Amino acid sequence: MCTLTEGERLAAAAASLIGTPFCLHGRDPASGLDCVGLVHASLAAIGHQGQSPEGYALRTIDPQRWFACAHDYGLVKAHGSIRAGDVILTSPGPGQSHLAIAESEISAIHAHAGLRRVVRQTLSVMPAKLMRWRIPG
Asked: What is the rounded average pLDDT of the residues 55-80?
């Protein structure tokens, strides 16, 4: 029997949400998720509760607001290569921040505002990766 790591469980929880509609400030998969909501719902699905930031605009989320939340969820700053379950902070454009969950070292799951749903994409096409967090262990 193969036991999944916490990171692999997080990646699987995110993958189970592929196709969920995009909704700014959405935290419930039944009604829609944004990138923060995807991280929140995926972590909650594997038993990690925390308080996610609220009240931000689509194009102006302040990444500093997420830093405290990451700690609240029990995540630590990640180093080394990307692993399944890493929460990745990207910058799709000037003054923009976006979160994704690594499914592997080559793909990630994220709530795509343009496509209006949660999708899987290769990391090579995603914008600059600024920082990562992971579940310790």
From this structure: 79
